[in-house]
Amino acid sequence: MSASTKLSTAVKALSCLAKTPDSVQTSAEIADAIGVNASKLRSLLSALAKQGIVKTIKGKDGGFKLNRKCSEIDLQEIYCGVEDRRAFHLDVHTGIPAENNGAQKINFFFNDLFLEIQADIENKMKNITIQTIINKTA
Amino acid sequence: MSASTKLSTAVKALSCLAKTPDSVQTSAEIADAIGVNASKLRSLLSALAKQGIVKTIKGKDGGFKLNRKCSEIDLQEIYCGVEDRRAFHLDVHTGIPAENNGAQKINFFFNDLFLEIQADIENKMKNITIQTIINKTA
DNA sequence: TCCATTTGTTATTGTTACTGTAACAATTTA
DNA sequence: TAAATTGTTACAGTAACAATAACAAATGGA
C-alpha cells in the first residue's frame, strides 16, 4: 500500500467511525463500507491506536471507535501513525565512490531540498483535520 | 530507479557535463565519474536530449554535451524530462464501490490536495538551476 | 469453564516492479 | 569497411507488493 493510499484509506476509516462516536464498529464493517480488506484495515487502525487516535476494544463485541474529536485529529499525525517513514520521504542514490565528493555534495544538496519539501508538506497537513474533510465532503 | 534518484542522477550527470562545455563526454566516462551504470545513464540522457537539455552526438567520437547554459536549466524541466509522471505524483485508492460516494468524495479531496502539493513542489524546483547547484556544491 | 467474537500479527501466495547488465541495431567518422 | 557510440530492447534475478488466509491473544457472556 503506497503512502498516499494509506493516508486516504485511514481518513475514510476515521470518517466512517465519526458517524457513530458512541459505539464501536468492527474492522469488517468499516472495511465493507470503504471497500478495503479487513485484515489490512486492522493493521492500519492498530497503528492509529498506538498514536492514540482510535481506541480498540478486543474480544466479543469489540471493534474500533474514535479516541478524540474530529477537529483534534490532523492529517500529519495520521500520516505519521500509518507510515514509519517521514511524510513523502525521498531518497538519493548513494552508491557513489567515496573519493568523488562532487557527487556526494549533490546528494547532500538533494537531501536538504527533500527535507525542506517534506517540512512544507507536513505544515500543510497539520492544518487539515478530519473535521475539515468531513465538512468539505459532506 | 525511483523518481528522486533519477533527478539527482541527472543533476550529477549535467554537472559533470558542465565541466567541459566545449567537448563531448561519452556515457561511459560520465557513468564512471558519478558511479552509475552506463546503459541506464544513456536512457536518462536520451530523455534529456528530447527535452533539448543536452545534445547527443552519435557514432565514433560521439557523446553528450550541454545544449544550454547551466543557468537556463532548472530542476523542474529535468524532472519532467526523466520522469513521465508529474513531479512527485501521488495516488489515491479508487477501488471503491460506486454507490459509496462519501469515500469517493474523499478521493477527490485528496486528488486536489495532492495536486496542490505537486504545484508547490514544482514552483520550488523551477527556481533551482544547475548553476545554482554548482554554486552551492563548489 | 468454555465458546464465540474480534483484534493484532504473521505467513503465504501470486504477481508486479525494479535493478543491473548485456546485447544489438542504428548511426557516424575516418 | 571498421571502430565507436548512442538508443533501445531484452533478460534474469531480486525485491517489493497486494490480497488473503491463518492463528494466537484477548474479551465477554452463557
Q: In the CATH hierarchy, what is the class of chain A?
A: Mainly Alpha
CATH 2nd-level architecture of chain A: Orthogonal Bundle
Q: What topology, given as strand order, has the largest sheet of chain A?
A: 1-2
Task: State the distance separating the first and last CA atoms of chain A.
Answer: 26 Å
Assembly state: homodimer
Number of domains of chain A: 1
Alpha-beta content class of chain A: mainly alpha
CATH topological fold name of chain A: Arc Repressor Mutant, subunit A
Write out key terms for the chains shown.
2 strands, 138 residues, Arc Repressor Mutant, subunit A, DNA-binding, mainly alpha, homodimer
Write up what this structure looks like.
2 copies of one chain form a homodimer. Chain A has 138 residues and is mainly alpha-helical. Chain A has a single domain (3-89, 128-137), classed as Orthogonal Bundle (Arc Repressor Mutant, subunit A). Chain A contains 6 helices and 2 strands. Chain A has helices at residues 3-18, 27-34, 38-50, 75-82, 101-126, 130-137; strands spanning 54-57, 63-66. A two-stranded antiparallel ribbon of chain A has the order 1-2. In chain A, helix 1 crosses helix 4. Chain A is elongated. The two termini of chain A are 26 Å apart. Chain A binds chain B through residues 1-5, 7-9, 11-12, 15-16, 33-36, 88, 90-93, 95-97, 100, 102-103, 105-110, 113-114, 116-117, 120-121, 124, 128, 133, 136-137, and chain B through 2-5, 7-9, 11-12, 15-16, 33-36, 88, 90-93, 95-97, 100, 102-103, 105-110, 113-114, 116-117, 120-121, 124, 128, 133, 136-137. The structure holds a DNA duplex (30 and 30 nucleotides).
